[in-house]
Amino acid sequence: MGKYKKEASRRGRETKDGMANVKQKGENFYRNAKAAKHLRMTRDTGGAKYSVDGSKVVQTAAFQSKEIPKARIEPNRKWFGNTRVISQEALAGFREAMAERKNDPYSVLLKRNKLPMSLLETGGKKEHEAKIHVANEPFDMTFGPKAQRKRPKIDVGNIEELAQGLEETEKKYQEKLELDRLLSGKIGEEERAAGIIGEAREPVFSKGQSKRIWNELYKVIDSSDVVLHVLDARDPLGTRCRSVEKYIKEEAPHKHLIFVLNKCDLVPTSVAAAWVRFLSKDYPTLAFHASINNSFGKGSLINLLRQFSSLHADRKQISVGLIGYPNSGKSSIINTLRSKKVCTVAPIPGETKVWQYITLMKRIYLIDCPGIVPPSLTDTTTDILLRGSVRVENVEHPEQYIQALLDRCQVKHIERTYEITGWKDSTSFLELLARKAGRLVKGGEPDLDGVAKMVINDFLRGKLPWFIPLPAKEGGEDDPEKVEGREGRLGEMRKRKAPVDEDADT
């Protein structure tokens, strides 16, 4: 029996109706918690129960019986027939409709695993064209006694077209081999082994192409759901990484690629608007000006990222990676979106060494990537330098690139910036500027290298106005493509012209 307060309360509840030892709620004076736990543990051991003499099993243990349960599976007619059948006309209509949606840069295709994407991607590089033709034709017209396919179908009509197609295929194959050699870094070793002396190129022009930089790029692409390709508004085609676009399109087609035209404040408004329209044919394009206090395009970019976040509502968050050439403004865009300095920025390339993970909001994260310079057989050292891909102070002979710089700028802009006139060539321009600025070396000679580095830095940092115009139209016109209805500032509403009343008095 219990003691103290519990026993006293039990005795106080004793009555003559036989309810003396009824257990009340919250009262357990017969055993404590440890004893109750041990009792529950030993009550059902889960083992088999035997007879009194222990000779045979009276009740088997749980999940130990070997008897087959009596069950019947209902047969279904779908076991013996095709469950998904589509006619040839419906298949052709599906392909056409989905191809339009797939090629549209402003349409998003979600839940690709629930769609028969193999029916759309028939032109892949892993399938032979003959296999594709056989798969697209009806079965009764290809095989059997009513077959109409007498010879293999080819895409050419005569022997000249066949020879031309073979030449184009060979050219593409050679270009692919050269690109693979460049990416592997063995092209220089092979030429030296063969005794070929190539173009003398300074080591500084190989920056942004190392294996470490490409590993960082692939990390960012693999970790991102949305990829922002940052372009320089002054030279969008020159800072466009087509090899990276091809990689994303082939290896990761489910990722969304967006163009961000940064530094749009350094070009005229009409030129920036024309480039936005030109690039929007391939991918969605936004004009942007990175500045913490006075930015442009920040609201549009955040709204676009929120749309992608709502499209992927089944995920807790999405990651947005920023890629592009060095010194294109990737870290500045992140600082602008956060409205404070969270990434180290500098007007020189190569400031970002490794990828960085930054929180924009609860469901959106940003990934900063080091600048990359895709290898190209057509880009010269002048193109690489004037795109801002290398540090000017590490170039040994910068004065040899001044003439190309002067060709890209208008004379009136150079005269207004430096307040000098009357130069004939790049050397005389550097001499006039050096004597005006007092940049002289021993003996009163002008410091051409120092002045050339100063001019190139002014060119890259926006002190000298310049931009690359739009490419000419296919029809042969020299005028760049004009943007209809957007003659004012970027982002303004398109104004409608008032209807003209012909009956009104003039």
Automatic annotation (TrEMBL):
SUPFAM superfamilies: P-loop containing nucleoside triphosphate hydrolases. Residues 214-375 form the CP-type G domain. Residues 1-17, 482-493 have a biased composition (Basic and acidic residues). GO terms for molecular function: GTP binding. Residues 1-33, 471-506 are annotated as: Disordered. Keywords: GTP-binding, Nucleotide-binding, Nucleus. CDD domains: NGP_1. InterPro entries: G_CP_dom (IPR030378), GNL2_CP_dom (IPR024929), GTP-bd (IPR006073), GTP-bd_ortho_bundle_sf (IPR023179), NOG2_N_dom (IPR012971), P-loop_NTPase (IPR027417), TRAFAC_YlqF/YawG_RiboMat (IPR050755). GTPase that associates with pre-60S ribosomal subunits in the nucleolus and is required for their nuclear export and maturation. PANTHER family: GTP-BINDING PROTEIN-RELATED, NUCLEOLAR GTP-BINDING PROTEIN 2. This is Nucleolar GTP-binding protein 2. It comes from Ascodesmis nigricans. The lineage of its organism: Eukaryota, Fungi, Dikarya, Ascomycota, Pezizomycotina.
